[in-house]
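Review the following:
>
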Amino acid sequence: MLTPGRYVGLPDEEDDFNFAERFIALKAEFEAQLIEETELNKAIAENLARVKI
């Protein structure tokens, strides 16, 4: 049967995770990545300063 009504829509699924906990975990991961970014940018700048042209 190829009628579109059969394939349209998704069943309602309940969220099986705690949004607040997930948000806190993602925020902590993001903040750690920002710190790592700062450290890597500093290392890159130091290495570029050592390059003689």
